[in-house]
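Q: What residues go here?
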């Protein structure tokens, strides 16, 4: 697949310079970091959450986990993990388990963990299990414009 069509269109429309980085099949973002020889702290993953207000894509480094209580407290929400069927419906051009952490491309609100703020470049899933996208850190900040910048990863 190389890169999901929705993501490609969003990157192109935003004039973001990017490169795709092919790698052997990886079933998780942490495995993708390992097989691509990329530091997990520079590989952003998205975790889709929802509550009665709507969806939220929590974006954090691949080796870390969402501290749901901390995130809910900071946002005054009651977010829970979204099941795979619903994720597939919201990200129809992506393989299961390989959603890009660029919520704006899919009209989904984003919370960005502070640990991703100062990286020189960021890698993330392209929408499949065999490609990453690499963008400069400044470009990733542009892609994350409007995201809530919080501390919720452990």
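A:
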């Amino acid at each position: 697949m190389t890169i999901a069509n929705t993501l490609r269109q969003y990157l192109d429309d935003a004039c973001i310079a990017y490169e795709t980085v092919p790698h052997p099949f990886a079933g998780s973002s942490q495995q993708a970091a390992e097989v691509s020889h990329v530091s997990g702290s520079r590989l952003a993953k998205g975790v889709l959450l929802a509550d009665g207000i709507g969806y939220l894509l929590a974006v954090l480094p691949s080796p870390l986990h969402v501290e749901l209580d901390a995130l809910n407290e900071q946002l005054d929400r009651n977010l829970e993990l979204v099941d795979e069927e619903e994720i597939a419906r919201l990200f129809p051009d992506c393989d299961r388990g390989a959603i890009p952490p660029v919520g704006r491309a899919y009209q989904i609100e984003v919370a960005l963990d502070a640990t991703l703020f100062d990286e020189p470049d960021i890698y993330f899933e392209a929408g499949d299990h065999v490609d990453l996208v690499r963008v400069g850190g400044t470009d990733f900040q542009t892609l994350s414009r409007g995201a809530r910048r919080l501390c919720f990863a452990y």
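A: Context that may help when evaluating the design: The first helix runs from residue 5 to 13. The chain has one domain: 5-150.
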